[in-house]
Amino acid sequence: MNTQAHANGREPVLELRALSKSFGGLRAVRDVTLKIMPGDRKAIIGPNGAGKTTLFNLITGIFPASSGQVVLFGQDVTRWPSHRRTALGMARTFQITSLFPKLTVLDNVLLAIQGLRRSKFVMWRFLSSYRDFYDRAHGLLERARFLDRKDIEVRYLSHGEQRQLEIILGLASDPKILLLDEPAAGLSSGESSEMIRFLAHLDRNLAILLIEHDMDVVFDVAEHISVLHFGEILEAGAAEQIRRSEKVQQVYLGTA
């Protein structure tokens, strides 16, 4: 991998080349091509059944591709399992929360960090003796402006705060690209606004690709949007271009 090219932003963080997936006779994803550079904020939108989650599963290695390529930091990872892609610098959140509700925010972050390390806990040692784990967890929470909630049990957080915490757990692997699967799912309008502010404060060198139905989140967070329709890219462009597109309004936004 040409690390210098990546550092200078000349090499895509992620590139999809004519990526396709078929389930029997159903072509769920059809020849999707997409390029994401360091620091990009991009979104994929589309009606239910458009193939968005299937596409994410192809990118992250949960589903094998039927054809096409997934290229991560210049390496063809199309046949790589998910954990190898994570080790290379990719992270993903899911629609369904996967937190430990009776543990504190800090404990959840510590477990996420420990799960990425080769070293294992020694049961007779206090967790506090793993100072590097604690330092890393505090750093993550501080950068995400979440440190004031570190001692709160997750079950007492609002739904919106739990969604934000999941993103923080995704950052535990120090990814260079973060895939967000409907981060505003189930949030109230106020919580969605808080999610927008939360995402805006993430490291600008981090590339973000999100699937989302909340158009306020999409247009406030994403600079470039791809519209998926029946597994194909119907249109792609700057957020304002997509907002004004009659074709997109007809098939998705329902305003034409």
Write a structural description.
There is one protein chain. It contains ten helices and ten strands. Strands 6-7-8-3-9-10 form a six-stranded mixed β-sheet, sandwiched between helices. Strands 2-1-4-5 form a four-stranded antiparallel β-sheet, covered by helices on one side. α4 packs across α5, α6 runs parallel beside α7 and α7 packs parallel to α8. The protein starts with a helix and ends with a helix.
Care to give the gist of this entry?
With 256 residues, the protein is an alpha/beta fold. The chain is 35% helix and 24% strand. The chain has a six-stranded mixed β-sheet with strand order 6-7-8-3-9-10, sandwiched between helices. A four-stranded antiparallel β-sheet has the order 2-1-4-5, covered by helices on one side.
In DSSP terms (H or I, runs of 4 or more residues), the helix count works out at 10
Structural class assignment: alpha/beta
CATH superfamily: P-loop containing nucleotide triphosphate hydrolases
Largest sheet: 6 strands, mixed
- Determine and state the CATH class: Alpha Beta
Summarize model confidence as the mean pLDDT. 88
User: What's the number of structural domains?
Assistant: 1
- Measured by DSSP, the beta-strand proportion falls in 15-25%
Radius of gyration: 19 Å
What would CATH call the architecture?
A: 3-Layer(aba) Sandwich
Order of the strands making up the biggest sheet: 6-7-8-3-9-10
Structure summary, number of beta strands: 10
What is the helical fraction, as a range of percent?
A: 25-40%
CATH fold category name: Rossmann fold
Identify low-pLDDT runs. 1-7
Determine the N-to-C terminus distance: 46 Å
The ordered string of helix (H) and strand (E) elements is: HEEEHEEHEHHHEHEHEEHH
What overall geometry do the principal axes of the alpha carbons give?
globular
